[in-house]
Amino acid sequence: MLEKPKVAFYWCASCGGCEEAVVDLAEAILDVVAAVDIVFWPVALDFKRKDVEAMADGSILVSFVNGAIRTSEQAEMANLLRSKSKLLVALGSCSHLGGIPGLANLFDRESILNAVYLESPSTVNPEGSLPATHHKDDGHSVELPRFYNAVQALNQVVEVDYYVPGCPPTPRIFRTALQTLLGDELPTKGTVLAPDHALCDECPRKDTKPERLSIVEFKRPQQLLIDEQKCLLAQGLLCMGPATRAGCEALCVRGNMPCSGCCGPTSRVKDQGAKMLSSLASLVEGKEEAEIDRILATIPDPVGTFYRYSLPASLLHRKKLDRASLHEPAASK
Amino acid sequence: MPEIRSPVDGANHEPPRIGVYVCHCGTNIAGTVDVKAVTEYAAKLPGVVVSREYKYMCSDPGQALIQQDISEHNVNRVVVASCSPLLHEPTFRRVLSRAGINSFFLQMVNIREHVSWVHLDKQAATEKTKDLVRAAVRRVALHKPLQKRRVPINPNVLVVGGGIAGIHAALTLADAGKQVYLVEREPTIGGHMAKFDKTFPTLDCAACILTPKMTSVGSHPHITLWTYSEIVKVEGYVGNYKVQVKRKPRYIHEDLCIGCQECITACVYKEGKTPDQFNLGLSKRKPVYLPFPQAVPQKVVIDPETCIQFKSGKCKKTCVEACGERQAIDFTQTEKFEEIEVGTIILATGFKTFDASRHPYYGYGRYPNVYTSLEVERLINAAGPTGGEVVLRDGTRPKSVGIIHCVGSRDANTNRWCSKVCCMYSLKLAHLIKERTGAEVYNFYIDMRTPGKGYEEFYDRLLDEGVHFVRGRVAEVSDWAVHPSEEGKLVIRAEDTLAAFVRRIPVDMVVLSVGLEPQADAQEVRRLFNISCSTEGWFLERHPKLAPVSTFTEGVFIAGACQGPKDIPDSVAQAGAAAAEALALIDAQFVELEPYTAFVSEEECSGCKSCIPLCPYQAISFVEDKKKAAINEVLCKGCGTCVAACPSGSIQQNFFEDDEIFEEIEGVLAYA
User: Considering only CB atoms, which residues of chain B are within 8 Å of chain A?
Assistant: First the structure.
């Protein structure tokens, strides 16, 4: 009997939802288990890092890494899995683009640590101790992972072969991706394993989008009774669909909620947020500056809206840091 | 359907062999940039096989250098670091074509306007040049072969504005056999010139030289004259403009009215009650009127604001009775829209005069005997409200007249520019007033500006005629008498800067020589025709010296005072020039357009429709059966709006593809 292909799963800075998505395959997971040999999956099975270190280089067929890179440990694991795997796949938005944890790039390490360990009202920390990378206790010393200044997408730390988009990837996207990867013909390296057009294409409300959309106010979902048939942008909701890769079958829109952009941009767009902004800005009604300002002010959190999943992978990447804090070891590959 | 040649299919698969050519431009560039260092630096960049410097790259030997490298070193991509592409991109593209490679495998780096002319530090300028050259080298490697589009030119011409400039341009073109549409906002053509009695410096009668031209326009077989009409929409591009003209209702059938004016005589109003615009309110007209006796077309107009039939619907309509069987009067007329297709457009929309009441200290609007120069033109005109008599409001002849120059010109509080014509027309008015009334005439001027053929001689003649000249800007005009001789007079107070004391000169009449300003709606007109205005609001020419009647929009030309203050000879000269430019385009029969059009990648388009309303040229449509956007290449002008806005990056633009632009940006930012 032929040896089954070896597959590994690992999570970095993420919520665990991507792991859930794997389980969400439901009965189909049995097919997966039957088809592959899972050699590393800390969230579900008891493996240690040393088990991976003991494997031969390239012995794993595919490693699926979800979550962004936030700490030095995550970077080390990513590098380790890279060397042990034929294919390294970024699974889910955080790993693909930086994801929600990537919004932390609006702050630097110091302000994050201060907020969490010193300033937050629920914190009791009379000694004012902050996370450190070295610790001595009782004659023993330990090295702890370093918290980076900025969150990075997986491909900003190691070479990535493929991407499975979504927050989390829908079972259909994941299943299709897995079939592709286990199949004989691999797509071009760097491919995002989902269709390469925007969500509008598969949106059930596509036909109701008017040719001339003129936006006089942006509304949040709780501010109106949403028409279940009509294009959400036409109702003033900020739907990221036009700037977001398809493949999810417009699940959010079917649930009467605007697309929040989790599948990232198409292959032709470098910066999803900038693209959506540039597109929407042209549709804002109002010729006078004051009127335009008034309309734009109805978007309460522009970065969190347009770059919800993609700030680290965007052209902006992160908050501007002063020169001194730029020099930190091992922050990049 | 214009003939279009699409971009050449297929990218060039040969690896790039780039030639870099750095121009000294004499000392223009070499004086500030270390050309040798740049050339040596470029030679080491990836893909570069030849890197050369030359004193004048645009010269024949310079061009030969590039051509030779293409044939001998198989150079297939060219970077020229020299001046603005506006100047020499066509030159170097021709070099590539002659050498047998696609002319779009060229990238120019503007190291003159962008570097040497704006920097002093030679080292920093050299480093910047290297950055820019590096960006171009990286960009040019990605260039795709493209081909210019060739579109035919519609030989019809639209002339906007029926003043002397518009009239002259229209006649020139029509005499050359072209079909001309002349559109004028007022009910008659003639413009400002029709208001004048005499013209400087020859003092020939304005009507005598203008009316023959006006009647020629009215009867020319190749001119379609639409007065009382305005342009409301302009679409298309050079050679192929679609224009919509709004024709305001005259309530008279132009084809039926014979200009007998019997309706005017028969009107229930025995006397006119409405201020006559043509006479600047110095006389009254009836609700049905002809703007002035020589008006072209000789068709009356009914003013619905004052006509009893329009106001109450209960008029006896004696005018209709007088018109009789001709039945030219039609109270039910509504505005009409005409669509025309033209290849070229000449804008000759003229100017407006400065509103003298903006200078409160000169008393215009407060003292009845303070007039503007244009009002005095009407008083002097034999066909004007007083039959050519220069009289005050009470009908008496003035014994003394003060003419104040530069009202609304050369003034930091209003308009900074010199209106160019005021000195000469003030001299003309001084002469005519003196001739008609025998009054003492005083000219108050800052500087006397009389450049022009026969102009200075005219000034000399006025000096001999005994007109008084006071050099100094007038402080105020008032009726405050401090001396018995000033009682009942207007006192002009001015510093006589030649005599160095303040004069008080009592006069009966004050003439304010108002300056020229852009038309009130110049900005709207500018947007309509997609051209630019200078900061003052005059239409902007493509080049102040070498393209004075062209604009930045191909096929749209400007003539006369809409481009800046101008007298009649200059306006006519510009009108002739604009007509010649239009003729040159028409006779070439086609125009070559840059291939910088945008295109939708059909399988990538999600059909989100974001791009559709954005296109200023209505080139994008939504194809219902495919549910995708499509761009009409003929209509696309390559502005890039849709490219930037396409949220899924499915629209790209030839020569400005994302890859090319990002490569260029990264090239600039990649510190050496």
Answer: 603-610, 612-614, 622, 627, 641, 644-650, 652, 658, 662
CB B156, CB B340: distance < 8 Å: yes
Q: What is the pLDDT of residue A29?
A: 79
Q: Report the predicted TM-score, pTM, of the whole model to 2 decimal places.
A: 0.71
pLDDT score of A281: 87
- For domain B353-517, is the CATH number 3.50.50.60? yes
What residue type is assigned to position B573 of the chain? A
CATH (one of 3.40.50, 3.30.750, 1.10.3470, 2.60.40) for B18-149: 3.40.50
pLDDT, average across residues A2-6: 84
Q: Best mutation site among A208, A244, A279, A305 for testing chain B: the one with the most B CBs within 10 Å?
A: A279
Give the pLDDT of residue B2. 36
Which residues lie closer than 8 Å to B384 by C-beta, 6 or more apart?
A: B197, B279, B282, B283, B377, B378
pLDDT at B672: 54
| Structural class in CATH, domain A6-100+149-182 | alpha beta
Q: Which CATH superfamily is domain B150-248+335-350+520-587 in?
A: FAD/NAD(P)-binding domain (3.50.50.60)
The boundaries of every CATH 3.50.50.60 domain in chain B are 150-248+335-350+520-587, 353-517
Q: What is the ipTM of this complex?
A: 0.89
Give span(s): CATH 3.40.50, chain B. Answer: 18-149
What is the rounded average pLDDT of the residues A299-323?
90
